[in-house]
## 1
Amino acid sequence: MSYVALKMIHITCVVLSYLLFTVRGVWMVQSSDLLQRRWVRIIPHVIDTVLLTSAIGLAVTLHQSPIKDPWLGAKVAGLVLYIGLGMIALKHGKTRKIKVSALIAAHIVFFYIVLVALTKSPLSL
C-alpha cells in the first residue's frame, strides 16, 4: 500500500476515533443508555485496530521507530496515557467527577498527540 493511502487511512481513523470518543463521552456525562448498545462497544475497537495498523505501516514505510525518533516515542507514550484515561472516563471511573476529569484529561492528551504528529517534536506544547 502506498504511503499516501496509509496516511489517509490513518488520519481518517484518527478523526473517526476521536469523534466517537467524544460522542461516547457526552453520552457518559448524560448517563445515556446508548453507551450499552452493541455497536458502540464494537466499532471503536475496529476503528482503533485499523488506526494502529496504519500507524505501524507508516512507521515501517518511513523506517521510523519510537526508540530512534523521540517524537514518535512521545506519540506512543501519549497514546498509552490517552487509552488509560479513556478507560477511566468511559468505564472504570468510580465517581462521575473522576470520569469527567479523566475525559477532559484524555482530550488534552489527544491534542498533544496531534501536535506532536504535526510538528514532529515531543515538546509541542
## 2
Amino acid sequence: MLAAIAFYVFATVTVISALLVVSSRNPVHSVLFLILTFFNAAALFVLMGAEFLAMVLVVVYVGAVAVLFLFVVMMLDIDFAQLRQGFLTYLPIGGAIGFVLLLELISVGSAWVISPEAMHHASTPTPAGVTNTEALGRVLYTNYVHAFQLAGMILLVAMIGAIVLTLRQREGVRRQKVATQLGRTREQAVELRKVRPGEGI
C-alpha cells in the first residue's frame, strides 16, 4: 500500500513538472522544473528496483545536463521577447506538425501489443548472487554492445556539431595563437633598447 501511494505521488509530480517545463515562460524556471522531473523519475526507478538507473539519472542528467542548461540559460544574454515575435507566424505550421505527431502516437498506442515473451522476461527474477547493476551490465555489454557504441558515436557527433555551430570569431577579442607564438623569431620577440641612467623607457 505504501509503495502504491509513493508511486502515484511521484508519478503525479513527474507529469505536472514535465508539463510546467514546456509551459513556463521563464527559461530558468523551466530548467528547475526539469530537474524536479528527473528527481521524481529517479524515485520511480527506485520503486521498480532499478537503483542503478536512478543513480545514473540523478548523477548524469541532474548533476551535469540540467545544471549545464541552467548555467547556459542564466549566462547567455538571450532576448526571449525577440525569439517569441515569430510565434504567431509559424503557429499554423507547428500546429499541423504537432497534430500529425499526435495522430501517429495514437495509432502506435492503439496497436500496441505486449508480447508473452516480454512478460516472461519481466517476471524472471535476477539470478542469485547477481546484483541489479551487474545484470544490467551483462545485458548492455553483450547483447546490445553495438547499439551502445552507436549511441556513443551519435552523441559524440552531436557534441562536435554543437561546438562547431556555436564557434564564432568575434572582433576585438584577443585570442592565443599557439602556431604564431611558436613560429616567431628572436627578432620578433626581443627588442633591445639602450636606457640611460636616470631615464625610463
## 3
Amino acid sequence: MRSWVKYGVFLLIIFAMVLWLGGFLAKKEKAGEIKRESPHVQGLTVGQVEKAIEVVSYYAGQVVADKRVEVSTRLMGKIKGVFVEEGQSVKLGQTLVSIDAEDIKAQASALDHQVAQAEQALRSAMAQHDAVKKTFERYSALLKEGAITQQEFDQVKAQFESAKAQVEQARAGIKAVQSQKQAVVSNLKYSSITSPISGYVVQKNVDAGDLAVPGHTLLVIESPPYLFEVFLPERFAGKVKVGQEYSVQIPSLGENLTGRVVEVSPSLDVATRTFRVKLQLQQKESLRSGMYGSLLLPEKVEVLLVPESAIVRRFDFTGVWVVKPDNTLELRFVKLGEKRGDKVEVLSGLKEGERIVIQGVEKACEGCRVGG
C-alpha cells in the first residue's frame, strides 16, 4: 500500500515539473500589452530642407599673371653667374644670367683672319685685273688698226673677263666671311641675358656652373596685375561678358576679391564644353600666381538645399536623417546634385520644409526619438 502512495507522489511531482517547465504555471500577458520605448538622442541640431530660387555656384580656377615670360637662350655654354633669386623684383633690361662665350669669341677671331685673307685676295685680283685691262685696251686699238688678228684679240679679251670675274669672286668672298662673323658676333648678346619686362622672378631653373641649352627655360618672370582664370560651362556662354564684375573667393587670403571680366573666349572646348574667362582682380600685395580660388556666379534656379554637414555617406549609400512628425528618426536615401558653397543640392528623396538633422549625424540612430 505504501509503495503505491510513494509512486503516486513521485508521478505528481514529475507532472508538476513538466507543467512548470512548459510555462503553463506562469502568468501570461495578452498580445499588445508590452510596448517598447524608443531611445532618446540628445545633442542633435535639427533644421529644414530649404528651397531656393537663386543660388550661387562656385567654379574653381586659379590666379595667373597678366604677363608671363619664360626666359631662355639660343646660346649653348656654361653659366658663369645667375644674379637673381626667386621672388626678387627685376626691372626691364636688368642683367639676369651670364653665359661663358669664349668659344664664340674664338670663332669671331678666326673669322677676322679670314676677312683679312679675303681682302688680300681682293687686292691681288684687282692688281691682276688692272694689268690685264691695260693689255685689253692696247689690243683693242691694235685690232682697229689691223695690226693683230681677231684670234689674238679674243685671247686677251678672255683674260680680261676672267680677271673681272676673279675680282667679283674676291668681293663676294669678303661679304660671305663678314656675314658669318656677324652671325657669330650676334650670339654674343645672348651671353648676357637681360629681363624683357619688369616684374618678379617666380621660377629659377639654373645655377652658376650649369649648362645652358638653347630652348631650355632658365627663369620665369611674371608681371602684375594678376588675373583670375576660370573655365565655365556652356550654359553661361553669352551671359558672362567683358566689363561685368563678380566676387572671387581666394581661400589662402581668407577673403573675397572683386574681379572684373577682361577676356571671354569666343569658342568652346569640344571635349569639356567649357570656355575660358579671365577677370582682373582687385590687387593685393599677398596675391600670387597659382593661387586656387572660386568664381561666385549667381544662377536663377529652383533647387532644394541641405547643409553638407547633414549628408551621411556609408560606402555607396548617401542619405539624410529625417525627423518624422512623431520626432523619431529615419535614415532616408537621397540623390545629390551640385555643391553650392556649404550646401548641397538635393535632386530626390526630400521635400521642402521637411525636418532633418544638420549637426550631430554621428549620434543619430534608426527609430530614435529626438530630444528629451
